[in-house]
Structures are given as C-alpha cells and as structure tokens.
Design goal:
alpha+beta, 272 residues, 14% helix, ten-stranded mixed beta sheet
Length: 272
C-alpha cells in the first residue's frame, strides 16, 4: 500500500504510541560471541527467491505475502567472504568472516591461510569490483532471532527462527521501504523497544533480489510482552544470533552483492 504526500504515515502514529514504553528499555543487540559448539535444532526463516520458508527438519513454504514477527534479538552486522561461487542447495561456511563489521577484523576462528587481510577496511575483497560487476566480494549480513506470528495475529513462542538478512534488507533510507537499521533507529529515537512491536516483513516488489522491508503492525499487549521477555532469556534464542560456521547455510547468493552502495553507513544498531 502506498501513501500520497498528504497521508499520515502509520509508522509515525505508532511511534507516538510507543514513546511511553521508554522506561522499560534495554538494548537487545549484544556483542557477538563465537560459538563453535553444534547448536540444538534450529529453525531458520529463509527469504530466498522472495518467498518466506521455515526450514527445520522439513521445509514449510509460507508464501510471499507479508509476514508478521516479533524481533527478539540481533547480532551485530557481520561480513562474509566466499572464495567459491554459490552452488544451489549446498550450504557451506565462508572462507573468511568478521562477526562484527564495526570492529572490522576477521573472527578469531578464521584460519590464518584464509584471512584475506588483517582488517576489513583495507581488504582486497572490500574493493569495488572485487565481486560481481562493480560490487564487493565481501558481503554484509545481519542475523535476527524472530518469533513468528500466525495469521490470526497470535504470537507463537514455539516458533522462534533465525533470520539472516542480506545488506539490501539491513540498509536503506527509503521512507516507504525501510531497511532494518532505519526502522530500528526510528523506533529507538523515541526511546521505545523494538521487541514491544509486532513487525510486518514484506518483499520489495521492485527489487531484482530478495529484499525485506520493515514496518510496524501494532504494539504488543502486556501478556504478549511477557512471552517475549521469556523467549529473550532462553539460551537457544541467543544461539540463533551467534554465528557458527559449522552449521551455517548461505541463503543469499552473490547476486545480491550491492554493498558498494552502503559503504559508510552505520553497521551496528546500538539499541535495536
């Protein structure tokens, strides 16, 4: 749905409603801690081919209609480099990676022979043209832990998924097609907590690669907030935002590699 210049953006109205929640706020973005242990069963929300799929022991296609979730936790923005081209249906660990693009150094577990540079900022894989076309070979990503909401608007505490987002869904200042960071900061500017909001995820129909747009749907009720707080304290929820190369699946092929357009933007959400 589009809005004319004279329309009131529903996001702005919701922001005003959220402001009184400020005293209860604390950040939900935590410093990345590398976890080399094999995780327990993980549900993953895939956006490949601009279709939502819930992937666990089986794959459940959820369709391409807007999907409602509650964002529970977020990892810092990370960077990943693959020395080999993406192969359909075959997940593999990246060659080199940084679990916090703000610090800009390879993660400690990256083997010495795989490190492309001592720092991300002067890395040859971070040069325009090192990837496809004019893109960069090293890609931004951000991992979220989200609680799914059913079609009746009921929170599903047993359906908590890892949602890996490519750079196109993390960055971007388009008022009508907000990326994660812009969406989170607008709420944060009002001193509100993103996990108190039911968020609607939708695909940008004008994008040639999967791109998620974020908008608020409604403020959570007190009993729903209690469910969210409980889920945030669950160690399994934190594991969903902790990068583990032993089990990582690359769900975004290099065709979404447009990161030259977001260089210089903030890569860490202080209070998501």
């Amino acid at each position: 749905m589009t809005h004319s210049e004279g329309d009131v953006d529903p996001f702005e109205s919701l922001i005003a409603e959220l402001a009184p929640e400020a005293p209860a706020i604390k950040p939900i973005v935590e410093t990345e801690v590398f976890d080399a242990t094999e995780p327990s069963k993980v549900l993953r929300l895939s956006i490949r081919e601009s279709v939502f799929r819930k992937i666990g022991d089986t794959v459940e296609e959820l369709g391409d209609d807007p999907l409602k979730v509650v964002i529970l936790k977020a990892a810092p923005v990370s960077r990943m480099y693959y020395s080999e081209a993406y192969t359909e249906g075959k997940g593999k660990a990246p060659t080199c990676w940084s679990t916090d693009a703000g610090t800009g150094v390879p993660a400690p577990p990256v083997l010495a022979q795989n490190r492309q540079s001592p720092t991300c900022f002067n890395c040859p894989q971070n040069i325009k043209g090192s990837g496809n076309g004019s893109s960069r070979a090293c890609r931004y990503q951000q991992r979220l832990a989200v609680m799914l909401v059913d079609r009746e608007g009921v929170l599903q505490p047993s359906q908590i998924c890892q949602l890996p987002l490519p750079a196109t869904s993390v960055f971007g200042n388009d008022r009508k097609k907000r990326g994660l960071q812009t969406y989170a900061r607008l709420i944060d500017d009002q001193g509100a907590l993103l996990s108190y909001v039911m968020t609607e995820l939708s695909f940008d129909e004008d994008s040639s690669t999967p791109k998620i747009c974020f908008r608020p749907f409604r403020v959570l009720e007190e009993e729903e907030i209690a469910l969210v707080k409980s889920a945030q304290q669950d160690p399994n929820t934190k594991k969903l935002t902790t990068f583990n190369p032993n089990s990582y699946v690359d769900d975004s092929p290099s065709t979404d590699n447009v990161f030259s357009t977001v260089q210089g933007e903030g890569v860490y959400i202080k209070n998501l």
